[in-house]
Amino acid sequence: MRFSKPLLFIACLLPLAWILFATGQAINPIEFLTRQTGTWTLNFLLITLAVTPLRRLSSYGKLLLYRRMLGLYVFFYAFIHALTFFVFDHGLDPAAIWHDVIKRPFVTIGFLAFVLLIPLAATSNQAAIRKLKRQWQRLHKLVYLIASLGVLHYLWLVKRDLTTPLIYAAILGVLFLMRTPMARRLDGKLKFL
């Protein structure tokens, strides 16, 4: 346990190292950076949502100790994704940013998902958990909406081959199904086999 969190911290930075290296080789570096940080935001969202079902299936309770760090990496990659959009695509021009947010539905959905992530990242600490108590859990259930918006953002962004966004949608659907009461009852029966 002593080394697992630092190792996970480093492992979660490896995609960024690869993105930065590959961006230099890309034909359109800004588009590449935007797409890859968006993809890794979704990857970390799905990984974070997979922690609870995996813990239940494996009975390895310590998996929950990694969920907060994984969730913060969701925000980290989403922040870089949004920053790329704000700075490189729009030169930090509020009017241009707002025009794009209103004009293009996939941008609207992505922007909304990013805004909803901010309070989750801001309250991902022990002090916030103690202060907010039951409200903290309610607030952090926004992750389900955010994940849905993220997948929808990806679906609306892609114009031709929908295979990859539909795979993300299917994985998210399975993760949602694993949280249903029926799936939990099935979990209990599987543990006795």
From TrEMBL:
Presence of the UniProt keyword Electron transport in the record: yes
Protein's cellular compartments: Cell membrane; Membrane
Cofactor notes: Binds 1 FMN per subunit.
Cofactors: FMN; heme b
Pfam families per the UniProt record, alphabetical: Ferric_reduct
Domain Ferric oxidoreductase: 38-150
Membrane topology: Multi-pass membrane protein
Keywords from the named record: Cell membrane, Electron transport, Flavoprotein, FMN, Heme, Iron, Membrane, Metal-binding, Transmembrane, Transmembrane helix, Transport
Transmembrane segments annotated in the record for this chain: 42-58, 70-88, 108-127, 139-156, 162-182
Top-level taxon in the UniProt lineage: Bacteria
Record note on quaternary structure: Heterodimer of a catalytic subunit (MsrP) and a heme-binding subunit (MsrQ).
Family: Belongs to the MsrQ family.
Function (record text): Part of the MsrPQ system that repairs oxidized periplasmic proteins containing methionine sulfoxide residues (Met-O), using respiratory chain electrons. Thus protects these proteins from oxidative-stress damage caused by reactive species of oxygen and chlorine generated by the host defense mechanisms. MsrPQ is essential for the maintenance of envelope integrity under bleach stress, rescuing a wide series of structurally unrelated periplasmic proteins from methionine oxidation.
PANTHER family associated with the record: PROTEIN-METHIONINE-SULFOXIDE REDUCTASE HEME-BINDING SUBUNIT MSRQ (PTHR36964)
Protein name listed in UniProt: Protein-methionine-sulfoxide reductase heme-binding subunit MsrQ
Species in which this protein is naturally found: Iodobacter arcticus
